[in-house]
Amino acid sequence: MPLSSQQVRKLRGLAHALKVIVIVGGNGLTENVRHEIDDALTRHELLKVRVNAEDREQRDAMIQEMCEQAGATLVQRIGHVAVLYRQNPDKPRIDPGKA
Fold first, then answer.
1. Residue 40's domain spans which residues?
2. Is the residue at 91 inside a domain?
């Protein structure tokens, strides 16, 4: 779901106070991690994920893979932390605003 710059700005503001919920460790994107990301996005819609990979390209690839598999949009990435957004189709909690 493509987001406008205004929507991204609003989601970044909401994500600022959030704590990291999921940490991707040395084993990478295991099935359990994918399941946790999917569950957390369904519950919270906006999610901070920490990716503990030393190589920047490896982190970027993991974040891209997370977004693709979860159907999420990357809102922000700072260092090892990425903010993902996926609206819950049944019970939306966050209204990102107009496109």
1. 5-85
2. no
